[in-house]
Amino acid sequence: MPRSLKKGPYVDQKLLKKIKKIKPDDKVIIKTWARDCTIVPEMVGYTFGVHNGKNFISVKVTEEMVGHKLGELAPTTKFVRHGGKMQRELEAKAKERQKGASE
Predict the structure, then answer these.
(1) Does residue 8 lie within any of the structural domains?
(2) Residue 102 has pLDDT above 90, yes or no
(3) Cα Rg of the chain (Å, integer)
(4) Distance between CA atoms of 72 and 34, rounded to whole angstroms?
(5) Would you state the pLDDT for residue 42?
(6) pTM for this structure?
(7) Which CATH number belongs to the domain containing residue 21 in this structure?
(8) Residue-wise burial string across 54-81, b where 16 or more C-beta atoms lie within 10 A, e elsewhere
(9) If DSSP codes are grouped into helix, strand and coil, which group holds residue 32?
(10) Residues of the domain holding 43
């Protein structure tokens, strides 16, 4: 467990105040920087804009997400691709197949 059971899950109090002001299933996006905040059942149905360091990623909370952290749902790095000679050969073959299919 990342946090002891006697302390309970960490939930940002400012975020709970924002939730109480609006209704669930609204189109309003609640912006937050609290990536370490645990998703609790009160958050189900709301849309959060979770900051990833550059911009906000929209996350619509469902029942399956309860217990996870908001930061898990907004990746901070973008996967480009694995490089190397084999990868270039595979990409070249894929381009040839696309050209052959389009002709």
Answers:
(1) no
(2) no
(3) 20
(4) 11
(5) 92
(6) 0.73
(7) 3.30.860.10
(8) eebeebebeeebeeebbbebbeeeeeee
(9) strand
(10) 13-76
Distance CA 99, CA 37 (A): 48
**pLDDT digits over 19-70, tens only?**
999 988 788 999 999 999 999 999 999 999 999 999 999 999 999 999 999 9
Q: Which residues face 51 on adjacent strands?
A: 56
Whether 91 is covered by a domain: the verdict is no
Report which of residues 8 and 64 the model is more confident about: 64
**Rounded distance, CA 66 to CA 43, Å?**
8
**Residue owning tokens 């309003």:** 28
Question: 103 pLDDT band (50/70/90 cuts)?
Answer: low
The number of distinct structural domains making up the chain is: 1
Residue 94 lies in a domain: no
Residue 34 resides in a domain: yes
